[in-house]
Amino acid sequence: MKSYPLPYTEFVKRMKSGGLTGLKCLDCSGYIIPPNAVCPECGSSHLETHSFSKNGTLRTFTVIRVGPTGFQVPYVVALAELAEGPWVMGNVVDIDPAKADMAIIGKTVSIGYRLVPNEGGEGPDEGLAFTFAIQE
Amino acid sequence: MREVIVLGAGMTPFGNSDQSQKEMFARAAIEAAEDARVEAKDLQALFIGNVLGGFEEGQINIAPFLAAEIGMPLTAPSARFESACASATVAIRHGVLMVASGVYDLVLVGGTERTTIMGTPLATRTFAMGSHSEYERFSGITFPGVFAMAAHLYAHKYDIPLDRLKRSMARVAVKNHHNGTMNPLAHFRKEISVETVLEGPMIADPLQLYDCCPFSDGAAALVIGAADKFKGHASKPISVAGVGQGSAGAVYAHRDITRVKAREASIKEAYRQAGIGPADVDVCELHDCFTIAEILAIEGLGFFEFGQGSDAVDRGDTALEGSIPINPSGGLKAKGHPIGATGAAQTYEIVKQLRGECGERQVDGAKIGVVDTLGGDFSTVCNLVLRRN
Prior knowledge:
The structure holds two protein chains of two kinds. By secondary structure, chain A is mainly beta. Chain A is built from one helix and eight strands. Chain A is globular, with a radius of gyration of 16 Å. In chain B, a hairpin with a 4-residue loop joins strand 10 and strand 11.
């Protein structure tokens, strides 16, 4: 590995230009998102950037009622499995948290992102969160 | 590798303390040294778990302060270990390996933490620092939130109606609170009912307040040493028969979070070293930071099949008089959870259980005990297998 394959700042830049870019392993053909230094499946560092489909399936969720400083509760956090295989954590948007129940597990979602101001926390001034919009 | 024994154990009451982390640790450490019948000047190293001392008291590099506090010699190295809630167990394992490999003969290990001074907003923010700081944190995920997602996934995966799973989870809390009533050092010492749990405020669906362990203050310490040098010295030596530690990455990288991969790797190694299997274990202190966490752990440690943990709880298999008593101390749930001290307190309980010193919460005839401590969002698990000779 000459340099980190897809650094966070580059990942965010590509999301802002409308893409969902991750990595593909040239050795085992596995898909990797968010980026990792090597393929989590086979350890290979022969990786290339890959454009992901933005389609996924909601696998589990919670409604946060007591949140960290700077987050307005309630809101929904979930894990979605992308069509390519990897799972990502994000927020289910366009849903009333009061109506988030077990029935949303298994729903098809479209993957997006939102920028979140980092209010009083450590690290950069803003961060990125994936968003999941349930497709009816 | 040399055989390592626990010579002495000490622990403060858990709960809300007005004492500093150094003061609490000093009490636990001196109790452990007295129990071991050794002098602080004879301790050759200190390995300590402490997670958020910088946020709690503005204190970093706490280990040498603790060593000086109890009169350890200048020649004794001391270091803080940070592996979130598993910090103390990781520190203990490190000390065990140092003694086993012959570097030291006598070592002090333990943990100290004063979480309550932070208040809930800062505590919630700092506890969430166990999530991936770039790709998870800004979703607003919390520590309960991660386990809440595990609970929903568990119900879905094993096709258990959520209401039924929640009642099983509530029974974990009822059992651990019951055990806590018999532990004079526990944070909570009151009985609760399934209804108490199900009527509590929602924290992260489906986890309600009584599904969650408290933030606590406290410290615990153990003196460990080489068996060939100290076996006759300790009145009731307890052997460290096996240790394990596993490392995994972010929550998203786990995918199916009903299976804690770091635990499965860690306990396999600890059992292998001890030459035992889960059926040989008499008593276990495991990481019940949330009620669902205990169900995942009794499966991951091999006591029950995957997907069968909630039924085992319903049958009472994990109660004091059950087939595998889990968390006789009251667990994190009732004994309390001073994060950097938790693993040392779990080890303290197993040592006392194997010595037969636990009074009305004693597991009859316990000879082999397991410690299970989870750090962060499934990313670190550290296990110890202890045995009475």
